[in-house]
Amino acid sequence: MIVVYGIKDHLNPIKAQLSDVIHSCMQSVLGMPEDKRAHRFVPLDKSDFYYPGGRSEAYTVIEINMMAGRQPETQKKLIKTLFEQIEKQLCISPIDVEITIKEQQPYQWGFRGITGDEANDLKYKVNV
């Protein structure tokens, strides 16, 4: 699951395109299938979104929650690909993008009435 935070005046107009960019990166780097898009957008009032100095109102936070198993090199490639594609396709400078990957063990994920370690029919690899 991916959660994206930003100032609503900047995030709302681009959220569909940003979702496409994020999912495209997830597909190309992690091999995620087309139908495994789970994005949540949290547009905030400017008064509710404090961010570091030197950033613009386009500042966007992307939190990626995933099952543990991806190699550090794969995770770094995902982060760098996101920076590159967000800048290329949405003209948002990498200085205005913050990305965190939060890993949980498969047994800490619940979906379709089972836990992640019980799923044996995933259409993608976790250990890449």
From TrEMBL:
InterPro entries: Tauto_MSAD, Tautomerase/MIF_sf. Pfam families: Tautomerase_2. This is Tautomerase enzyme.
